[in-house]
Write a structure and sequence with these properties.
Layout (H helix, E strand, L loop, with lengths): L1 H21 L4 H22 L3 H4 L3 H25 L4 H8 L2 H11 L6 H24 L1 H27 L5 H22 L9 H25 L5 H8 L2 H12 L6 H26 L27
Helix pairs in contact: 1-10, 1-12, 2-4, 2-9, 2-10, 4-8, 4-9, 5-8, 5-12, 5-13, 6-7, 6-8, 7-8, 7-13
């Protein structure tokens, strides 16, 4: 059953990029509806379990949740915009640098980082240079998309760190309801400021918005949060790396997306670098010493989580 759920989760998150790239709606609007629907889906069962879990929250939990919400909103704005400027495969790979950014943040915070982790970071970011070198030759738009995707990965790392802090004492249902809801409010304000419509789309666009909510938010992120209760975060993180080739394959099949051979080489280098980062974390944990970086995903709560909890795309 665990293997089956892992396959479902990989397919869910891999479909995220291709679906959003094919959805004819503003990036901010897609992000708004994805989070608004996610908050409603999470809020109903959380509300049925009682309101005390929301009333008992302290200032620290609310501050970390607010930071996570802001980072998530900006992550979606960057990532979905990147999908409309560069290829799905490249945007997905650059956003998947999330694990590398978390380790890099620890370097800036003065935390000990394993030499293997640093080597993996260098390798992963070398892959970024390979990809952007080919995108410079394609178009300035593709290069801008790359930059937004890299920023989206860094924001996803910040979101994961903040979410991990908040979820130490919050259930998945409570956290995701507040985080998704706050994220949707921030995105609604951004839509208003930048004059992006949130209604009036074609039936095909609404189908895309519903599709990314079901596939990525529920079948993807929800499944991985469930798996966090039965297998280690490290293993889950390794499984999620399959999103990089998964998104590339789906984009090639359904969007006829063809990339230069050098771009695929860059994708492989990023994938290898991230694998080295995660294996370095595993080695540090195996020796009982502090890990070079926090877990790429927030730690699982004591009880198996209910629906929700973004991993992030």
């Amino acid at each position: 059953m665990t293997f089956f759920l892992a396959v479902v989760g990989v397919l869910g998150v891999s479909a995220s990029g291709p679906i959003m790239a094919a959805t004819a709606a503003p990036a901010l609007a897609i992000a708004f509806w994805r989070n608004a629907l996610g908050a409603i889906i999470m809020g109903v069962p959380a509300g049925l379990r009682g309101k005390d879990q929301f009333r008992s929250l302290g200032r620290t939990e609310l501050r970390w949740t607010a930071l996570a919400s802001l980072a998530l909103a900006l992550h979606f704005a960057c990532f979905i915009t990147a999908l409309q400027l560069t290829s799905v495969a490249v945007a997905t790979a650059l956003v998947c640098l999330q694990a590398g950014w978390i380790a890099l943040f620890d370097v800036f915070r003065g935390r000990p980082v394993a030499a293997q982790t640093l080597a993996g970071l260098v390798l992963a970011f070398a892959g970024v240079l390979v990809i952007t070198g080919f995108d410079v030759a394609l178009s300035p738009e593709a290069l801008l998309g790359d930059a937004l995707a890299v920023a989206g990965g860094a924001l996803a790392g910040l979101y994961t760190i903040a979410g991990g802090k908040a979820r130490r004492t919050m259930s998945t249902g409570t956290y995701t309801t507040l985080c998704y809801g706050s994220c949707a409010l921030i995105l609604a304000v951004l839509c208003l400021v930048f004059q992006k419509p949130v209604i009036g789309f074609s039936p095909a666009a609404w189908a895309g918005i519903l599709g990314v909510t079901v596939m990525a938010q529920l079948l993807g992120h929800t499944v991985f949060n469930h798996l966090l209760a039965v297998i280690s975060p490290l293993v889950v993180s390794m499984i999620i790396l399959l999103e990089i080739p998964g998104a590339a394959i789906l984009a090639a099949v359904f969007l006829s997306e063809a990339l230069p051979a050098g771009t695929y080489a860059g994708l492989a280098v990023i994938l290898a670098g991230l694998a080295v980062v995660l294996l370095g974390q595993a080695r540090k944990k195996g020796t009982g010493r502090p890990s070079g970086a926090e877990d790429p995903l927030p730690p699982a709560p004591p009880a198996p989580p209910a629906l929700g909890g973004d991993v992030e795309r």
